[in-house]
Amino acid sequence: MPPAAAVPPRDAPDPSVTAPGTPGDGATRWLDPREQGVWRSYLEGTQRLWDHLGAVHEAAAEVSLQEYEVLVRLSEADDGGLRMSQLAYVLVHSRSRLTHTVGRMEIRGLVERRASPDDGRGVLCVITDEGRAALERTAPLHVTGVREVLVDVLRPDELDALGAALEKVAARLRG
Q1: Measuring CA to CA, which residue among 53, 85, 91, 56 is closest to residue 73?
Q2: HSE-up (13 A, CA, CB side) for residue 147
Q3: At residue 145, does pLDDT exceed 70?
Q4: How confident is the model at residue 6 (pLDDT cuts 50, 70, 90)?
Q5: Which long-range contacts (CB under 8 A, 24 or more apart) does 79-84 make?
Q6: What is residue 25's predicted lDDT score, i.e. its pLDDT?
Q7: DSSP string of the chain?
Q8: Contact indicator for 73, 105 with CB cutoff of 8 Å
Q9: What rounded mean pLDDT belongs to the chain?
Q10: How confident is the model over 75-93, as a mean pLDDT?
Protein backbone atom coordinates (compact mmCIF):
# COMPACT_ATOMS: atom_id res chain seq x y z
CA MET A 1 0.00 0.00 0.00
CA PRO A 2 1.46 3.38 -0.98
CA PRO A 3 1.96 6.22 1.45
CA ALA A 4 -1.15 8.29 2.03
CA ALA A 5 0.45 11.28 0.31
CA ALA A 6 0.68 9.39 -2.98
CA VAL A 7 -3.08 9.34 -3.66
CA PRO A 8 -5.49 12.19 -3.02
CA PRO A 9 -8.27 11.37 -0.60
CA ARG A 10 -11.72 11.10 -2.19
CA ASP A 11 -12.71 14.43 -0.68
CA ALA A 12 -9.44 16.16 -1.63
CA PRO A 13 -9.82 19.78 -2.66
CA ASP A 14 -9.11 20.86 -6.21
CA PRO A 15 -5.27 20.78 -6.48
CA SER A 16 -5.27 24.06 -8.38
CA VAL A 17 -6.66 25.84 -5.31
CA THR A 18 -4.07 27.08 -2.84
CA ALA A 19 -4.59 25.63 0.61
CA PRO A 20 -3.67 27.92 3.48
CA GLY A 21 -0.90 26.81 5.81
CA THR A 22 0.65 24.20 3.51
CA PRO A 23 4.34 24.15 2.63
CA GLY A 24 5.72 25.11 -0.75
CA ASP A 25 3.37 26.77 -3.14
CA GLY A 26 0.39 25.98 -0.93
CA ALA A 27 -1.09 23.26 -3.12
CA THR A 28 -0.41 19.55 -2.99
CA ARG A 29 0.61 18.27 -6.40
CA TRP A 30 -1.14 14.88 -6.40
CA LEU A 31 0.27 12.12 -8.55
CA ASP A 32 -1.50 11.64 -11.84
CA PRO A 33 -2.37 8.07 -12.92
CA ARG A 34 0.90 7.61 -14.85
CA GLU A 35 3.00 8.88 -11.93
CA GLN A 36 0.99 6.77 -9.48
CA GLY A 37 1.56 3.70 -11.65
CA VAL A 38 5.31 4.31 -11.78
CA TRP A 39 5.45 4.90 -8.02
CA ARG A 40 3.57 1.70 -7.24
CA SER A 41 5.66 -0.30 -9.72
CA TYR A 42 8.81 1.06 -8.08
CA LEU A 43 7.58 0.14 -4.58
CA GLU A 44 6.49 -3.35 -5.56
CA GLY A 45 9.50 -4.01 -7.78
CA THR A 46 12.11 -2.95 -5.23
CA GLN A 47 10.38 -4.78 -2.37
CA ARG A 48 10.04 -7.98 -4.41
CA LEU A 49 13.69 -7.69 -5.55
CA TRP A 50 14.95 -7.36 -1.95
CA ASP A 51 12.62 -10.14 -0.77
CA HIS A 52 13.88 -12.42 -3.56
CA LEU A 53 17.56 -11.71 -2.88
CA GLY A 54 16.98 -12.08 0.85
CA ALA A 55 15.36 -15.48 0.27
CA VAL A 56 18.25 -16.54 -1.99
CA HIS A 57 20.72 -15.66 0.76
CA GLU A 58 18.58 -17.26 3.45
CA ALA A 59 18.23 -20.52 1.53
CA ALA A 60 21.73 -21.07 0.22
CA ALA A 61 24.25 -18.48 1.40
CA GLU A 62 26.24 -18.42 4.59
CA VAL A 63 25.69 -14.67 5.02
CA SER A 64 22.46 -12.68 4.96
CA LEU A 65 21.83 -10.07 2.29
CA GLN A 66 22.66 -7.28 4.77
CA GLU A 67 25.88 -9.02 5.81
CA TYR A 68 26.80 -9.53 2.18
CA GLU A 69 26.43 -5.81 1.49
CA VAL A 70 28.68 -5.02 4.47
CA LEU A 71 31.33 -7.42 3.16
CA VAL A 72 31.11 -5.97 -0.36
CA ARG A 73 31.60 -2.40 0.84
CA LEU A 74 34.50 -3.36 3.09
CA SER A 75 36.17 -5.41 0.35
CA GLU A 76 36.07 -2.37 -1.94
CA ALA A 77 37.54 0.00 0.66
CA ASP A 78 41.21 0.84 1.01
CA ASP A 79 42.79 -1.58 3.47
CA GLY A 80 39.45 -3.42 3.74
CA GLY A 81 38.04 -1.10 6.37
CA LEU A 82 35.65 1.79 6.84
CA ARG A 83 34.65 3.86 9.84
CA MET A 84 31.37 2.58 11.23
CA SER A 85 29.69 5.95 10.56
CA GLN A 86 30.88 5.92 6.95
CA LEU A 87 29.75 2.31 6.49
CA ALA A 88 26.30 3.16 7.87
CA TYR A 89 26.08 6.08 5.46
CA VAL A 90 27.00 4.14 2.31
CA LEU A 91 24.70 1.26 3.26
CA VAL A 92 21.87 3.64 4.22
CA HIS A 93 21.50 1.90 7.60
CA SER A 94 21.03 3.42 11.00
CA ARG A 95 24.12 3.23 13.17
CA SER A 96 22.33 1.01 15.68
CA ARG A 97 21.19 -1.43 12.99
CA LEU A 98 24.71 -1.58 11.58
CA THR A 99 26.19 -2.07 15.05
CA HIS A 100 23.97 -5.13 15.58
CA THR A 101 24.80 -6.57 12.15
CA VAL A 102 28.53 -6.01 12.59
CA GLY A 103 28.37 -7.50 16.09
CA ARG A 104 26.89 -10.74 14.72
CA MET A 105 29.48 -10.78 11.93
CA GLU A 106 32.33 -10.15 14.37
CA ILE A 107 31.30 -13.15 16.49
CA ARG A 108 31.54 -15.32 13.36
CA GLY A 109 34.96 -13.91 12.45
CA LEU A 110 33.84 -12.15 9.25
CA VAL A 111 34.84 -8.65 10.39
CA GLU A 112 36.59 -7.01 13.30
CA ARG A 113 36.28 -3.61 14.86
CA ARG A 114 39.40 -1.58 15.55
CA ALA A 115 40.15 1.85 16.90
CA SER A 116 40.67 4.35 14.11
CA PRO A 117 44.34 5.18 13.58
CA ASP A 118 43.29 8.79 12.78
CA ASP A 119 41.74 9.47 16.16
CA GLY A 120 40.77 7.62 19.30
CA ARG A 121 37.05 8.23 18.89
CA GLY A 122 36.43 6.52 15.56
CA VAL A 123 35.85 2.81 15.11
CA LEU A 124 36.83 0.99 11.95
CA CYS A 125 35.07 -2.10 10.69
CA VAL A 126 37.57 -4.28 8.82
CA ILE A 127 36.92 -7.37 6.71
CA THR A 128 38.86 -10.46 7.83
CA ASP A 129 40.31 -13.23 5.70
CA GLU A 130 37.29 -15.35 6.68
CA GLY A 131 35.02 -12.50 5.63
CA ARG A 132 36.73 -12.31 2.22
CA ALA A 133 36.39 -16.08 1.81
CA ALA A 134 32.67 -15.94 2.71
CA LEU A 135 32.20 -13.09 0.24
CA GLU A 136 33.94 -15.07 -2.52
CA ARG A 137 31.75 -18.11 -1.81
CA THR A 138 28.54 -16.06 -1.72
CA ALA A 139 29.14 -13.67 -4.63
CA PRO A 140 28.25 -16.11 -7.46
CA LEU A 141 24.91 -16.93 -5.81
CA HIS A 142 24.15 -13.24 -5.21
CA VAL A 143 25.11 -12.11 -8.71
CA THR A 144 23.05 -14.92 -10.27
CA GLY A 145 20.04 -13.70 -8.27
CA VAL A 146 20.56 -10.08 -9.36
CA ARG A 147 20.92 -11.13 -13.00
CA GLU A 148 17.87 -13.39 -12.86
CA VAL A 149 15.43 -10.77 -11.57
CA LEU A 150 16.90 -7.44 -12.71
CA VAL A 151 19.79 -7.29 -15.16
CA ASP A 152 18.62 -9.98 -17.61
CA VAL A 153 14.99 -8.79 -17.43
CA LEU A 154 15.84 -5.32 -18.74
CA ARG A 155 17.23 -4.25 -22.09
CA PRO A 156 20.60 -2.48 -21.83
CA ASP A 157 18.99 0.93 -22.45
CA GLU A 158 16.39 0.26 -19.74
CA LEU A 159 19.10 -0.78 -17.29
CA ASP A 160 21.06 2.39 -18.07
CA ALA A 161 17.92 4.53 -17.64
CA LEU A 162 17.11 2.85 -14.33
CA GLY A 163 20.63 3.44 -13.06
CA ALA A 164 20.63 7.08 -14.15
CA ALA A 165 17.19 7.72 -12.64
CA LEU A 166 18.00 6.14 -9.29
CA GLU A 167 21.33 7.96 -9.12
CA LYS A 168 19.42 11.26 -9.48
CA VAL A 169 17.10 10.25 -6.65
CA ALA A 170 20.02 9.15 -4.45
CA ALA A 171 21.96 12.35 -5.17
CA ARG A 172 18.95 14.46 -4.20
CA LEU A 173 18.59 12.62 -0.90
CA ARG A 174 22.26 12.32 0.08
CA GLY A 175 22.28 15.81 1.44
Answers
A1: 91
A2: 6
A3: yes
A4: very low
A5: 79/126, 80/126, 80/127, 80/132, 81/114, 81/124, 81/125, 81/126, 81/127, 82/124, 82/125, 83/116, 83/122, 83/123, 83/124, 83/125, 84/113, 84/122, 84/123, 84/124, 84/125
A6: 58
A7: ---GGGS--TTPPPTTSPPTT-STTSS--PPPHHHHHHHHHHHHHHHHHHHHHHHHHHHH-SS-HHHHHHHHHHHHSGGGEEEHHHHHHHHT--HHHHHHHHHHHHHTTSEEEEE-SS-SS-EEEEE-HHHHHHHHHHHHHHHHHHIIIIITTS-HHHHHHHHHHHHHHHHHHH-
A8: no
A9: 87
A10: 93
Please check the confidence at residue 17 and state whether its pLDDT lies above 70. no
The least confident of 20-29, 55-64, 106-115, 117-126 is 20-29
Residue type at position 146: V
Give CA–CA dist 148/49, Å, rounded.
10
Residue 5: band (very low, low, confident or very high) from pLDDT cuts 50, 70, 90 = very low
- Find the length of the chain: 175
Query: CB burial class (10 A; 0-12, 13-18, 19+) of residue 82?
Result: buried
